[in-house]
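For reproducibility, we list the full input for the calcium ion complex.
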Amino acid sequence: MRSVALIFIVLIFFTACPKKQDTATQNMTSIASEQTGKSEVDGLPSRTFDINGDNKPDIWEYYKKGEKDGKQTDIVVRKEFDLNHDGKVDMVKVFNDKGETVKEMIDFDFDGRFDTTNYIEKGQLTRQEMDLNWDGKPDIVKFFEKGKIVRKELSTKIDGKMDYFEYYDDKGSVDRIGIDKNGDGDVDQWIKK
Ligand SMILES: [Ca+2]
Ligand SMILES: [Ca+2]
Ligand SMILES: [Ca+2]
Ligand SMILES: [Ca+2]
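The corresponding predicted structure, in tokenized form, follows.
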């Protein structure tokens, strides 16, 4: 009687378990791709480099086949770096077809979650996003023109809804501040500096 019960329990375990694992794996994959934005390299070949000689990769390079000066060549589209050699990626750089960096993501405190995303055009920073609660919605966004900050937007409730806007003059000082008090996205109050 006991062995029948045991078989029954084992059967339940095996029929229930794979389903659970699938969902768990799916969730983990979707969290991972949200965190790393890997969709832009899905399915692309990659090669790795070991920088500190511990036989574990520290740089991952994703590339696609392309053409440069009439010749077939590998175009690197993304590089990932493990700066503190703990096996977790801390910095990602995304490149355009000319090899220019267009986006970089940085995990400053090495907790496996990216804190800052920089958007770059022709070597100059144009936008910097910071996600304070890692929900995928930026809570601080800074805008730059010709390398200088022109505007900063802030979500004071950290819900990704911007309600505090700082405008800068060409010397890099805050010129005026706008506050959205009723959450409709429009400034209700201006503070002049
Ligand atoms: Ca290594
Ligand atoms: Ca790391
Ligand atoms: Ca982090
Ligand atoms: Ca957020």
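Residues 70 and 98 are 14 Å apart (CA to CA). The chain has a mean pLDDT of 85. Both points were considered when choosing residues for closer inspection.
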